[in-house]
Design goal:
The protein contains 17 helices and 16 strands. By secondary structure, it is an alpha/beta fold. It has an eight-stranded parallel barrel with strand order 1-2-3-4-5-6-7-8, surrounded by seven helices. The protein is globular. The chain binds 3-methyl-2-oxobutanoic acid and zinc ion (ZN). The site of zinc ion has 6 residues, from loops.
């Protein structure tokens, strides 16, 4: 029986989320994210905009093949070419959704589309009908919905449903609306569109005024039954409504919002970390639900209250979103078997023996250097070992001379396509010297867009995780690495980004890549 309070979660992290400047993800990262999202219980995964680029097409195709429960969706504009590409990319999935959109606000119709309202009406008729030839799961969106004349919106929604759209999405494209207004928009559609009961209403809110989650919930309270959102709230400009906030708000305040989702909330933290690692976008410390401090209690009064009764300052438990208390795991005497068991507990049951071997070797070295080895340290080690599996350039040794007075200098040995190469360089700081060494050993021209360091755990002996984002001819890649030595982590993070770039080059411009590769050897 259909549950009228079931909310469909439509995730657009890999489409709208990837539209955030600098958030591009590789195919492998998208596949990894999709697996986590599938497990998380997301109903619909918008995997990309297939016509937008060969990379998007490839990602939507690959994701459509691997999803077990979630339904893949692709976005397209109102052109047959877009819709064909979307269908082509999705068609290997048992069930898929075609999401087609056109602007309906006067501003967009006139200045962006250069179309009259009548032409937009014609376009809806033609393209929703066309999309329905491929599937009965067609979603139609009126871009800039919240700045659209209400009567016109009702007319377009009625038409889209008549042409076969089963989901009608109302985007607050520019994050302009407020909860009371958005609620009214959804209510008006419910009351005025005669065939509205033939479709599910969906909301898609951007966060320009920091209201995306509040607006989405207002839409749900007025009758919307699908929410479009992204993990960590990433997306165009200020982002989209954050999935974790929507889901946990409904779960925590079920007294006021008696809605259900299919999300296994215990996997929220894992999904957040996976997306943050892939995009290189850190999660702000005080971010609701998934921020580092979301469940931290610093003040004495709060800590005292928590010890007496957790409910005093905790409205949901960290465990409910998969945040485990930092736990001391193992010491230097722990064996390989215990290490393997620990990996299983941490969700790495499927990693290869090679990765376990490499990570175990690193764990032994770390346990010698560091007093306490925590779960987070083990996660960083395994992630680092997984990254290295496919590298064609690897760091063999690094010596850095840093401090006051002298120019900072790095001496480095790299393995480049199997050959050992050595170089030394001075730089404006040790990181600059390291990156110059890499450039000398493997000549390349990239722009460094981001370099950031995070401590994995607390204390001066903590491992550092370094993230690096580089850009070459519009292609960006993010590299990551962890080590107790921040400079070693910096070199490895840069190399990881470079290795990913090499894979991208190989796919998109193999001949050009061949020349670059020759220069590097
Ligand atoms: O924000 C928006 O209007 C969109 C649509 C394409 C759904 O992302
Ligand atoms: Zn959007």
């Amino acid at each position: 029986m259909e549950d009228k309070n079931r909310i469909i979660i439509f995730d657009t992290t890999m489409r709208d989320g990837e539209q955030s400047p600098g958030a591009s993800m590789s195919l492998e990262e998208k596949i990894q994210i999709s697996r986590v999202f599938d497990e998380l219980g997301i109903d619909i995964i918008e995997a990309g905009f297939p016509i937008a680029s060969p990379g998007d097409f490839e990602a939507v195709t690959a994701i459509s093949k691997i999803l077990k429960k979630s339904i893949p969706a692709g976005l397209d504009r109102h052109t047959k070419k877009d819709i064909d590409a979307c269908h082509e990319a999705l068609k290997s999935a048992k069930k898929f959704r075609i999401h087609t959109f056109i602007s309906t606000s006067s501003l967009h119709m006139k200045h962006k589309l250069n179309k009259t309202p009548e032409q937009v009406i014609e376009s809806i008729k033609e393209h929703v009908t066309y999309a329905r030839k491929f599937t009965d799961d067609v979603e139609w969106s009126c871009e800039d919905g919240t700045r659209t004349d209400m009567d016109f919106m009702c007319k377009t929604v009625e038409l889209a449903i008549k042409c076969g759209a089963k989901t009608i999405n109302i985007p607050d494209t520019v994050g302009y609306t407020v909860p009371s207004e958005f609620k009214k928009i959804i209510e008006t559609l419910k009351n005025k569109v005669p065939n509205i009961d033939k479709a599910i209403l969906s909301v898609h809110c951007h966060n320009d005024l920091g209201l995306a989650v509040a607006n989405s919930l207002a839409g749900v309270s007025a009758g919307a039954r699908q929410v479009e959102c992204t993990i960590n709230g990433i997306g165009e400009r200020a982002g989209n409504a954050a999935l974790e906030e929507i889901v946990m708000a409904m779960k925590t305040r079920s007294d006021l919002m008696p809605f259900k989702t299919g999300i296994n909330t215990k996997l929220i933290s894992k999904a957040s970390k996976t997306v943050s690692n892939a995009t290189g976008f850190p999660v702000q410390f005080n971010k609701a639900i998934v921020g580092k401090n979301a469940f931290a209690h610093e003040s004495g009064i709060h800590q005292d209250g928590m010890l007496k009764n957790r409910n005093t300052y905790e409205i949901m438990t960290p465990e409910s979103v998969g945040v485990k208390k930092t736990s001391l795991v193992m010491g230097k005497h722990s064996g390989r078997h215990a290490f393997k068991d620990k990996l299983s507990d941490l969700g790495y049951a499927g990693v290869t023996d090679d990765v376990i071997q490499t990570a175990f070797g690193k764990f032994k070295i770390l346990a010698d250097k560091k007093k306490h080895v925590y779960d987070e340290d083990i996660i960083a080690l395994v992630d680092d070992s997984l990254i290295k599996e496919s590298n064609v350039i690897n760091l063999k040794s690094l010596k850095v001379f840093a401090g006051t007075g002298e120019p900072q200098k790095a001496e480095m040995t790299l393995e480049v396509y199997g050959d050992l190469k050595k170089a030394s360089e001075t730089g404006d700081g040790p990181v600059d010297a390291i990156f110059k060494c890499i450039k000398k050993l493997f000549p390349h021209e990239v722009k460094l867009q981001l370099y950031q360091v995070h401590a994995v755990t607390e204390g001066t002996d903590a491992q550092a995780t370094v993230s690096v984002r580089i850009e070459e001819k519009g292609k960006t890649t993010v590299g990551q690495a962890a080590d107790t030595d921040t400079l070693v982590a910096s070199a490895n993070a840069y190399l990881n980004a470079l290795n990913k770039l090499i894979i991208k080059r190989e796919k998109t411009a193999p001949e050009e890549y061949e020349q670059e590769r020759m220069k590097g050897i």
